[in-house]
Amino acid sequence: MSGDSDCTRTSPSVGSPSDNEFLPDRPRYVCSLSPDLIAKAREELQEKPEWRLRDVQALRDMVCKDYPTLGTCLDDAFLLRFLRARKFDYDRALQLLVNYHSCRRSWPEVFNNLKPSAIKAVLASGFVTVLPHLDTEGRHVVCIRPDRWTPSNYPITENIRAIYLTLEKLIQSEETQVNGIVILADYKGVSLSKASHFGPFVAKKVIGILQDGFPIRIKAVNIINEPRIFKGIFAIIKPFLKEKIANRFFLHGSDLNSLHQNLPQRILPEEYGGTSGKLDIAAWNELLLASEEDFLHDFSQLVLPDDSSPSEALVSGDAEEKQSEEPLRGMKPQLYYCY
């Protein structure tokens, strides 16, 4: 599906709920949020149900005018993810959408052939999973365990692919779009040799995607069992973190009581002092693998049109690259020094 053909099928830019009636080949959006979440979205995200479809159409019109060959999906539900992630600021939502595609096109090792069946080994290892219970704010908890990865089995990019697909699955839920997610990262057993795979290039790419290239709200990052080497890892990623995100990192060490102040014991597995039983990765793996066809359909719409070059859709980052050169030179020595 090309960006041009999508844009020629858009409805007039007049904002009213009836606009969707002019889009017979595009799924009609039906809100699945509870009254409480509608109120939360209004308060926190500036989302007004009576204006929602008008806002989506406005973003669609901007895509068609400014990036006609972006090759993006223009369905209401898809565009709404980006509006919610940027609190219905049209310009910022458009930039996020463009960045979303730029990230996908600039890192083929991660995004080529991206589907659940291609990352079965990562899923089976338990490197990334989603806890079965929501936290007190209605947020999913993504659990990442780097010690489950054996570098000789597959490159670090496979882990990133698994995390990305996990986030793609989660963001399909409107509840997640409004509430956001929480990350729980267990760094137990992470050695210097393993940490060295997460160098400045990978760090910058991953942070760029999570901060500016994916429509999800990361509300907290809880780090537990971090060894001394984590000081080096954090030294690598901190220069790329926005202050708001950096302030959402919580380092608990081996203090589970500290962790329980952020995440209730009732949702945590026994491994982390919780009461919800043993950590079970099977349920999430099954859910993700069962979504293969959904991903094939969704990602088939995110293609680069044959008649355009990647640079048309990419955001220039020359100034940012220059600013980042100096801190990057000193990262590796910091990593070894902190070990």
Describe, in plain words, how this protein is organized in 3D:
By secondary structure, this protein is of the alpha/beta class. It folds into two domains: 35-106, Orthogonal Bundle (Helicase, Ruva Protein, domain 3), CATH 1.10.8; 113-301, Phosphatidylinositol Transfer Protein Sec14p. The chain is 47% helix and 8% strand. It has helices spanning 3-7, 35-45, 52-66, 76-85, 90-106, 108-111, 120-125, 156-170, 174-179, 192-195, 200-212, 230-237, 243-246, 256-262, 282-289, 292-300, 318-329, 331-337; strands at 128-130, 140-144, 181-186, 218-224, 249-253. The protein has a five-stranded mixed sheet, with helices on both faces. Helix 4 (76-85) packs across helix 5 and helix 5 runs antiparallel to helix 11. Mean pLDDT is 84; it is low at 1-5, 8-24 and 304-339.
Largest sheet: 5 strands, mixed
Rounded Rg: 21 Å
What form results from the Cα inertia axes? globular
| Discrete helix count | 18
Helix-strand makeup class: alpha/beta
**Overall structural domain count:** 2
Query: Can you give the helix content as a percent range?
Result: 40-55%
- Distance between the first and last residues' Cα: 50 Å
Care to give the gist of this entry?
This protein is an alpha/beta fold and 339 residues long. It has helices spanning 3-7, 35-45, 52-66, 76-85, 90-106, 108-111, 120-125, 156-170, 174-179, 192-195, 200-212, 230-237, 243-246, 256-262, 282-289, 292-300, 318-329, 331-337; strands spanning 128-130, 140-144, 181-186, 218-224, 249-253. The longest helix has 17 residues, at 90-106.
